[in-house]
Structure formats: C-alpha cells, structure tokens
C-alpha cells in the first residue's frame, strides 16, 4: 500500500503542534495555528463564543469545506486543550518514530495527535472535494474540564450528520462506539427538627451512611463519584458525579439515591436533590452503518478495527446529544495524562489514511438515512 502521508510530514506537523502550550482555557495560540492551516486548505473558519462563556482565550474552531450535495455532510473533531502539566512537556523523537516527553511531563498527544490527524487529512481532502459531501472540522476547547467547549458549542454552525472524533485511548484503530452519560448531582441535608440540644446524628455521618446505601442499590454499569462535602455539623451539601450507560439506568440510579437517603434519614432529615446532565450517554451498535463505514476505512489503512466502550464521556457524547452520531477513533496515543504518554508517527500516518478514506470512498456507502 502506497503511504498517503509520509513520516516526515507527520513529524513536522506533530512536533510543531506539541511545541505550542495549550492547557484548558489557554488554547488561543494553537487555535490560531490550526485556523491558518485550515484556511490554507480552503475551509471557511469561524470561532464561536464558547471562550466568553468559559472565561478562556478563545472559542471552538468550526471550519467548513463545501462538498457534493448528494453525499452526507461529515464531521471531524478533536480537542485543542491538554492537561495543565503538558504545557511544560519537551517533545522528544526516537529513531524508530516514537514521540514522548523528555522531561517526565505528559506529552500532550491527547489530543494534539488527533488534531494532527485532522489537519493532515484536511490537506488531502481539500483536493478531493468532488468525492465527498460538505466536511466540517470542529476543534473544541476545554474538553479536559468536562467537555465544556463542546457543551457550549454554537450548534447553529453545525451541518454534519455523522462523523469521527479523534480522541479515543488505546491502540491505533480502536473504535469507541459507547460512552456513559455524566450527571452532576448535589444533595442538601438539614434536620427537620431539633431534639433537645443536638440532632441524633451529624449530617456528615448521615451522608456517609446514605452514600454507602446508595452504592449498594446502584445499578450495574453505573459509577458514583463524590467530589465535595461542605457545611456544618447539622447542615451539609454533598456533590459529585454519576456515570450511567443509558437513560434507563440513570433514572434507576436517581431513584436509588432518593430511596437510599430516605431510608437512612428516617423522616428526620430533609433531603433536597439537584441534578444536571453534563453529557448524554451514547451507544452505537457495531452493525450501525456508520460503524461499518469507519471499520472499512480503518482496514483500508492496514489497521485492525477493535471495538471498545469508553469508561468516561468525551466530545462524541455531546455530539450524539446534538443528533450527530460519531465513532471515537484512537490514533495510538498511549498512557494519556501520564509521564509515559507516547504516540508513534506510523499510527498518526495510518489514521490519516483512514480518515481520508472515510470522508471520500467509504462515505459513498452512507445512505440518505444513517440508521
């Protein structure tokens, strides 16, 4: 198979991107570099107002390349920001093409390797507009803070009906087709009455008992996390996050929470709940037309498709909530967010090939409906 992109081109672009610090809310320099690249490829590029909402330097980058009206408009997405520690990374290249951080900090390949794939593909797709529908590139900000950029994305700019997110963990070619919802919760506890000079139990102890009981009742495929306790001995606010694989499981988990605390409160404590959906769950069956199309593109690049479920949400969850089903494709970034984070030039090159194939040849097989 003739390589679609050389290691030399991958190396030049990837090292360039990795050299630009872009911690969450400070992505302006990297956004400018990407905007320049996409504009040179003929995309119409705009930045939305997410940065103002998030008190960041810049909003999301939304770039559009018009294509054939008889083929489906597609999305390519990655996120611009990295974990904070990656801003001090020193990208280092080995003789065999592996990139790692030379000073023990996270590399920042999550998700600059994904951004590199998107830009490398854009260079090639700019000359293949006659083979594809309209292509949209969305590079989000503040993904590492809970998909904030995608959640505040100006949805009026979106035309795509299906797409790829380039942000999955695992070996190159891994296809993540399922991710849990993220729901923030807050519980306020206070006594309904005072018995003498003291309550029967402190609010903190009651909260601990309630959380233990909630976990016992929690449905499988749901994960409960507690983030903060605040208050005094009698009044307390407890907050955390709940991850569930489906809306049905989420409703079961919420009902279990109410029942668990009602049981331990025994009518003596007032429990007030607040719930906020941060991102919905998504679950695409592997025989879905989009999944089959992406798998075909991955195979065309010499990679082996590996189906996987994510343990946490990502921008693909948010796009699914917008009605845009996406497969999250791994570009080979290993040990994300750690001092061992690494990516190989060959994987970035192969994933670029897969993305180009998806947007042109394979996209031909997407029917008018994507079900």
Summarize this structure briefly:
By secondary structure, the chain is of the alpha+beta class. It folds into two domains: 7-179 and 281-365, Aminopeptidase (3-Layer(aba) Sandwich); 181-279, Alpha-Beta Plaits, CATH 3.30.70.
Q: What does it look like?
A:
The protein is of the alpha+beta class and 371 residues long. The chain contains 10 helices and 16 strands. Strands 1, 2, 3, 6, 7, 8, 13, 14 and 15 form a 9-stranded mixed β-sheet that branches. It has a 4-stranded antiparallel β-sheet with strand order 10-11-9-12. Strands 4-5-16 form a 3-stranded antiparallel β-sheet. Strand 10 (222-231) and strand 11 (236-244) form a beta hairpin. The two termini are 32 Å apart.
Number of helices: 10
Structural class: alpha+beta
Separation of the first and last Cα atoms? 32 Å
Major sheet description: 9 strands, mixed
**Helix coverage percent:** 25-40%
Compute the number of structural domains. Answer: 2
CATH architectural grouping of the largest domain: 3-Layer(aba) Sandwich
Order of helices and strands: HHEHEEEEHEHEEEHEEHEEHEHEEH
List keywords for this structure.
single chain; 371 residues; alpha+beta; Aminopeptidase; Alpha-Beta Plaits; nine-stranded mixed beta sheet; four-stranded antiparallel beta sheet; 26% strand; elongated
How is the topology of this model organized?
Blueprint: H1 7-18, H2 28-40, E1 44-47, H3 50-54, E2 61-65, E3 74-79, E4 91-93, E5 98-101, H4 109-125, E6 135-140, H5 148-151, E7 162-168, E8 174-179, E9 181-191, H6 203-217, E10 222-231, E11 236-244, H7 247-265, E12 269-279, E13 282-283, H8 289-300, E14 306-309, H9 315-321, E15 326-330, E16 342-344, H10 345-359
Helix pairs in contact: 1-4, 1-10, 4-10, 6-7, 8-10
């Amino acid at each position: 198979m003739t390589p679609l992109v050389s290691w030399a081109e991958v190396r030049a672009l990837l090292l360039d991107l990795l050299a630009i610090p872009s911690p969450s809310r400070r992505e302006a320099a990297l956004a400018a570099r990407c905007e320049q690249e996409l504009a040179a490829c003929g995309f119409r590029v705009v930045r939305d107002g997410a940065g103002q909402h998030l008190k960041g330097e810049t909003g999301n980058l939304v770039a559009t390349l018009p294509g054939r009206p008889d083929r489906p408009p597609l999305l390519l997405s990655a996120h611009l920001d990295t974990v904070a520690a990656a801003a001090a990374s020193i990208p280092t290249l080995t003789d065999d093409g592996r990139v790692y951080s030379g000073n023990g900090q996270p590399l920042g390949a999550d998700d600059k390797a994904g951004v590199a794939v998107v830009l490398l593909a854009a260079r090639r797709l700019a000359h293949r507009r006659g083979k594809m529908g309209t292509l949209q590139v969305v590079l989000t900000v503040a993904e590492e803070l809970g998909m904030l950029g995608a959640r505040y994305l100006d949805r009026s700019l979106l035309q795509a009906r299906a797409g790829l997110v380039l942000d999955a963990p695992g070996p190159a070619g891994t296809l993540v087709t399922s991710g849990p919802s993220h729901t923030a919760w807050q519980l306020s506890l206070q006594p309904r009455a005072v018995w003498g000079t003291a309550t029967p139990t402190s609010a903190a102890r009651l909260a601990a008992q309630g959380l233990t009981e909630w976990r016992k009742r929690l449905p499988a495929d749901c994960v409960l996390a507690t983030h903060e306790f605040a208050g005094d001995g009698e009044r307390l606010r407890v907050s955390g996050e709940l991850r569930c694989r489906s809306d049905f499981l989420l409703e079961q988990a919420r009902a279990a929470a109410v029942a668990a605390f009602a049981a331990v409160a025994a009518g003596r404590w007032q429990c007030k709940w607040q719930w906020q959906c941060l991102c919905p769950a998504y679950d695409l069956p592997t025989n879905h037309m989009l999944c089959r199309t992406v798998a075909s593109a991955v195979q065309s690049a010499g990679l082996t498709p590996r189906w996987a479920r994510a343990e946490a949400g990502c921008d693909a969850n948010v796009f699914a909530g917008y009605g845009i089903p996406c497969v999250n494709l791994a570009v080979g970034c290993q040990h994300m967010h750690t001092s061992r984070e690494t990516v190989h030039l060959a994987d970035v090159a192969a994933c670029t090939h897969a993305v180009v194939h998806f947007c042109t040849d394979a996209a031909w097989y997407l029917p008018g409906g994507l079900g």
